[in-house]
Every structure is written in C-alpha cells, then in structure tokens.
Amino acid sequence: MFIVYTPAGGEPEHYDARSLLVSEVSIVSRTIDMKWPQIKEGLAEDDLDAMRGVAWVLKKRSNPSLRWADWDPGVEEMVTRLDKTEVETYVAGAVAIARQDPEVTGAQIVEALKDLPPVAMDPAHAEAVIKEMAADPKDEPALEVQAEQTPSDPSEPSPSPALTSSESNTSGSSPTSATSGPETSTP
Prior knowledge:
Blueprint: E1 2-5, E2 13-16, H1 22-32, H2 36-44, H3 48-60, E3 78-81, H4 84-98, H5 106-112, H6 123-134, H7 165-168
Antiparallel strand pairs: 1-2, 1-3
C-alpha cells in the first residue's frame, strides 16, 4: 500500500507502507493511538490519521527532526494506492470467488473489477492483470480446425488440426491457481 502525498503546487511523494519497520509502526501506533491492524484497515479506507502517521514516520527517515505538529498535510493532499502485489492478490481472490459460479463470465468479472485500476499505483498494470486473470476460455473463440487443405508441394506434410486454447494448456494450472504466485515487484 502506498500513500501518495501531493502538496499544493508540488510533486507527488510516494510512501510505501510495506517498508515500515516494527519500531516505526510502534511510533505511528503511539502517535495516532491505533494498533497496527487498525492502521492497515485505516490505510485501506483512506483514513487521514493512518495515512498521516505512516507518511510522517517514513518522511522522518530522511528528516529525523521532523515533528508530528510540523507536518500537517491538507485533507485532499493524501490518498492511498495499491501496489502491484496487492493488485494481483486482490484480482486473484476476486476471480477465484467468481469462478465458483459457472454462470459468471470473464466479461462480468472484468466489469466487477472496473473500479480497481484507478486506485492502483500502476493503473495499466492493474488493467492487464484483470484482463489476464479474468480471461475466460469459453469467451475466447476456439482455433478452427483447418479444412482440407492441399499443400502446394506434395513433399510438405499436411497441416495437423489446431488445438483449442484449453487443449493446449497441459499444465493443469491457471493464473489463479495456488501454485502460481504473483510477481513480487513493486513500482
């Protein structure tokens, strides 16, 4: 989870909450009187105290003398954004739940997740993950078996029938399978 702080007329600053150390969490917790689970929940809900506390402690890394009272951002200057791993985890979970109903199509899953890219640090990545993980083999046209086609050269072998995308996947796993984890890189 990233906190994006954009001061009036300034450039956005990004603070990665996942980089916090336990000692820093303790400082945030004491300062805003919230336990770590409440802080994490607060970040997910754009809670101003949680965002301010985490960003303040992370700013203190480069400015150790920065006091709580000296850093008071505007209400509209901070938002949270999901990192790549969080997007992948969220989409994988949503797809796994949706796939339990055989009536749900890939297009419906994509529609249900349309509000996710705007809250991601990398909206293009979020869109690509949604498209990839929500892809529904029954929505994709099957490769057509080539009709009788006589090769121009009798020494060339005749083409073999093409496989459908589901037949060509022999791994038995899907992008949402427990054996294929998301990338761990972040922006």
